[in-house]
Amino acid sequence: MSIQFGPEWRDFENRLTRYPQVAEVSLRRALTASLLMIEADAKRNVRQDTRRLAGSINHEITGQYPNLVGRVGPSVQYGVYVEFGRRAGSMPPVDALIGWVRRHAATGSLPRGGANRQRVLYNRAFALARAIKRRGIPARPFMRPAYRRNEGAITALFARIGARVVGYLAGNPL
Question: 3-class SS at 24?
Fold first, then answer.
């Protein structure tokens, strides 16, 4: 008894050979869409003062198929303290608070200029840092809620990949 494979077998074999490239494209698309959903939601809902934190929220994809890794989050160091808060006991850097003090000081309460103004700003920033050391800072999560709000849509995106890949292997175009 002999078995012969027809042209459909060669087509299937070609699709099977191209599968890693096709799967990588599908995974990258789904991963990018997922990261963009989380990024947009986080930017929309993060606490704002100068919009620096919101502007620093970005995503990246690293690795090669099948080891793709997607990351989304802020690039500024203080993002972790906004997300998770800060326990009492450690003092933040005073210099990091001077800009905040400058923006939030009562208009007429600061001297006009020079070294005296800088000294007053530093003293107020130091007092704020000391208060943070005593009380800590409450968490104001923006990344975890962004993921939770989009989790269903993300799961659906990746579930559709499985159906598309099976269809592709069966001969249906992606």
Answer: helix
